[in-house]
Amino acid sequence: MLTDLLIDAAKAIVAVLLVLNLATVLLWFERKGSALIQDRVGANRAAIFGIGRRLGVPNLGVTNTFVADPLKMFTKEDFVPDQADRFLHTLAPFLSLFPVLVTFAVVPFGDRLIVGSRVIDLQVCQLDVGVLYLLAVLGIGIYGAALGGWASNNRWALLGGVRASAQMISYELAMGLAIIAVVMTFGTLDLQEICRRQGGAWFGWLPKWGIIYQPLAFLLLLTAGIAESKRIPFDMPEGESELIAGYFTEYSGGKQAAFMLTDFAEVVLVSALVATFFFGGWQVPYLYPEGFRLPGIGSVLLPNLVVAVLGVLAFGLKVVFFCWLQILVRWTLPRFRYDQLMYLGWKILLPLGLINLAATAVVIVAVAS
Amino acid sequence: MEVGVFAFFAVLAVVSALGVVLQRSPVHSLLALVATLLAISALLIGLGAVAIGFLLAIVYVGAIVVVFLFVIWLLNLQRDPGEPGHLAAKFFGAFAVAALTAELFAFFVRAPVGPPPAPAGYGSVDRLADLIFRDYLVAFEATSLLLLVAVVGAVAVARRWPADQPRRSGAGASAHGELRRAERA
C-alpha cells in the first residue's frame, strides 16, 4: 500500500520535473536557436567568474538562461497595477500553468516496468477516459490568459485576454475533432492503450503508427496545438507591436515567469500529444515486449528493463523532436492577421476536421462489415 | 466514493454556488460558477458517472462559461453597487426560498438510505454512446437540429442589416466586430 503510494508519488514528481526542466531547456534552445537562424550571436553575456572563458569554452548562454534569468525573475518586484483586481491578478498565472502541468498525468511515457513481482505502468495515472480528462483540463487553461488580461486593469492586457480566449476556443474545436478521429481509429479513450495499439508492423516492416491511419488529423492537431500555445505564427494575444505583451503586460517577476513557463510547457504538451497519438508514443519500431524482431534479419531477446528504458528514451526523443519542430516553425513563419487566424480556424481546419471524421467513420464501418 | 471526498466536493459546490449569487463583481461570480461546475463534475465522476462528469467540465467550463465571460466583457458589466431591492421582491424571494428548502427537506426525509446498486457499466462512455446513438438516436439528432436552428435564428435576429443601419454595416457576429466592441468598452 505505502509502496504503491510512493511509486505513484515518484512518477508524478518525475513527470512534472521533466516537463518543467524541458521547458527551461527549450527556452535556452529558443534563444540560441533563434540566434543561429537569424545569424546572430545570441545570449552570451552572463558568466560565473569567467570560468568558461578561462577554460576556453565558448559562452553558449547557459548561465544566462539557467542561472541569471531565473534569479532576476524571482528577485524582481511583484507589481500589481493600481485599481487592478489583486486576487484574480495573482490567481491567473497559476490558473494558466496548473492545467498544462496536470495534463501530463495521463500521458504515458513508457510501457510496463517489471520489478520483482510488481508491474509498474509508466504513466502517472491510468484513466479509461484519458482523452476526456485531457480536453476537460485544457479547457480550464483558457481562464488563466483571459482573467490575467481582465484583472490587470489595462486596455492592452484586456484585448490580449479577449484575443487569447477567442483563439483558444476556436482552435480547441479543430483539436478535438483531430483527437476524436484518432480515438475512433484505435477504439479507446485510454492513452496508454492507444500507444499499445500502435505496436507491431504491417507487411513486417511498416510500423502501425497513427500517422499512417490519420495523416490529416496529425496536421490538424499540430496546427491547432501551436495555436493553443499562442506562439508565433498564432501569437496575436501577445503581439508586441500592437499590444505591448498582451494579457501579461502588467505582470512582472515570478508571475510573468509562470506565464512564460506555461508557453513552453504547452509546447512540450503538444509534442507529447502528437507523439502519443500519431508516432506510437513510447513504441520503438520492431521492438516488442520480448526484444527486437527485425524484418529479414532475425530477433534479439532483451530483458524487460532494457525494453522499458528504450521505450522511455524513444518517447523523450520524439517529444524533443516535435519541440524542435515547433521552435523551427516559430522562427520561420510571420504572424497571421487576426481575420486570417479566424478564417484558418473556422473555415479551413474545422471543415477539414469534419471531413476527416466522416471519412474515418465510413472507412471503419466498411472495414468492419 | 469515500464520504470525506464527497463531503469536500459537496461543501465546495454549495459554497461556490453561494458565491455565484453573493459576489458583487460579475467576473468573480463567473469564477465561482466555474468552481461550482468543477466540484459537481468531480462529484459525478466519484459517483460513477464518469463520462457525464468529464463532459460537464469540457462543455460548460471549457466553452459555455467562457462565452459568459465574453458577454460580461462586451456588456462592460461593472461591480453591482448593491442597491437594496424592492420590499415586495424581498418578500416573495424569501417565500420562494422557504418553499424550496421545505421541498428539499421533504425529499431528503423520504429518500432511501444508501444508493441503489448501479447497473453494470453505469456511467461509462460505452453506455452513454448506446443511449444517445442507439436507444434515443432520433431524439438526440432532433435536439441537435433544434439547437442549430436556434443558433441561425439568433444570428439572424442579432444581425444589423445594412438597410436598417447604413453606418454600422457588418458589425454582426464577426470576430472583428466583437473585438472592436471590446475595444470601445
* Widest sheet, order of strands of chain A: 5-6-7
Distance between the termini of chain B: 46 Å
Coarse shape of chain B: globular
Number of domains of chain B: 3
> Percent range for helical residues of chain B?
over 70%
- Number of helical segments with 4 or more residues of chain A: 13
Q: In the CATH classification, which architecture of the largest domain in chain B applies?
A: Up-down Bundle
Class derived from helix and strand content of chain B: mainly alpha
Oligomer: heterodimer
Characterize the main sheet of chain A: 3 strands, antiparallel
Bulk shape of chain A: globular
**How many E strands of chain B?**
0
Report the largest inter-chain contact: A-B, 31 and 29 residues
Task: Give the total of domains of chain A.
Answer: 1
Q: State Rg of chain B.
A: 22 Å
* Mean pLDDT figure of chain B: 81
Provide an overview of this structure.
Chain A has 13 helices and 7 strands. Chain A is mainly alpha-helical. In chain A, the strands form 3 sheets. In chain A, strands 5-6-7 form a 3-stranded antiparallel β-sheet, with no helix packed on it. The longest helix of chain A has 36 residues, at 2-37. The radius of gyration of chain A is 22 Å and the shape is globular. Chain B has 185 residues and is mostly helical. Chain B folds into 3 domains: 1-79, NADH-ubiquinone/plastoquinone oxidoreductase chain 6, subunit NuoJ (Four Helix Bundle (Hemerythrin (Met), subunit A), Up-down Bundle), CATH 1.20.120.1200; 86-120; 136-185, no CATH class. The longest helix of chain B has 26 residues, at 50-75. Chain B is globular, with a radius of gyration of 22 Å. Chain A binds chain B through residues 85, 87-88, 128-129, 132-133, 135-136, 138-140, 142-143, 146-147, 150-151, 155, 158-159, 162-163, 165-166, 169, 172, 189, 338-339, 342, and chain B through 25, 27-28, 31, 34, 38, 41, 50-51, 54-55, 57-58, 61-63, 66, 69-70, 73, 124-125, 174-176, 178-179, 182-183.
